[in-house]
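Troubleshooting log. The previous structure file for this entry was overwritten by mistake, so regenerating from the original sequence record. Sequence copied from the archived sheet and checked twice against the printout by T.R.
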Amino acid sequence: MDLRSELEKIGERARSAQRRLQSADSAAKDSALRSMAEFLRRDADNLQRANRKDLRSAEEAGKDDAFIDRLRLDEARIEAMAKGLEEIAALPDPVGEITDLRYRPSGIQVGHMRAPLGVIAMIYESRPNVTADAAGLCVKSGNAVILRGGSESLHSNLAIAERLRAALGKANLPLDLVQYVNTAEREAVGILISMDRHVDVVIPRGGKGLIARIKAEATVPVIMHLDGNCHVYVDADADPRKALKVVVNSKTQRLGTCNTAESLLIHQERMDDLLGPIAAALQEKGIEIRACERGLPRIPGAIAATAEDYGTEYLGPIISVKVVDDLDAAMEHINRYGSQHTESIITENYTHARRFLREVDASSVMVNASTRFADGFEYGLGAEIGISTNRLHVRGPVGLEGLTLQKWIVLGDGHIRS
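Regenerated output below.
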């Protein structure tokens, strides 16, 4: 059987399994998730044994420490996967929720009901924990998922998926709700993202190359973001203590994530008292600063920023700094260079805060808070299947509700239209 035929068979099985899931209640889905957690804990040694094969291959290929760290499965990370599944099980089930029910003059009642998206293709790289997170979120929200991880984590992902499927069987749910594409061929991605008859939504998580390819080639709807070029704007009315804490945390709490701040904007009135201390604190953490013409003389050791710097997601120890005239200039800069991911303002001015929330174009907009909070767990979603900067359906961290849609329902009692 050729690869396309094989993947179409997987899609057919996923569609059949998802339709069968519609008759399952929340208790059955929650039982499956708790069994998934149990199986991961029970087989932690075998999971780590499989993971060591991937780690050896990565080391032999000369991958850097950050890559190997993303790939690693230790006891703590396996426990985190298990806890994540249990947290998803404890969340309210969005499927079947009826809202906005109201009577119309004809006597019928009209409202909305939440329903699953259907079959989701999850395409991702490096992180084996995505296998468990995606499966748990999809099953709880009534969807089937086709998983295609990167070749670098093949053994780890297969081992995790095997336990997840066994748990579905224990809960008397269809095993094909979770299927893993057991091939490293790049062609598999191209086929999955064009399987309109079998796949309803594609969700990619990975590097820019993967995301750009899917964005360019997919014929199936995609929930995705390409870049995480996030800003923190220190307003004229910023509290100095809050500004220092939030900027440093936004940039340095973790360097390689999509919600890490890549640019600092600061009001011209705060150059003298705040720019220096913030820059020094960043430099103490090993951050290279690329500053505009006005900021450069006030930051020893900084280098001149270019226009390209303002549009770059560094994912490393570099930040761009720009002094702006006012709030309008800050928002103009963000809306020009930002990637609609996460933006934050530091201010004690209520009017400025409200304007920033309303006028900045991003999936998460914050006041006096670190950009690092843009995360499904921190938002109370239990986990996230990804971050969306789409304008349709869902924006920001995508949890259970984001994996459902609303359909119209009509309730009558023999009503007919006159």
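The longest strand covers residues 109-116. Archived copy saved in two places this time.
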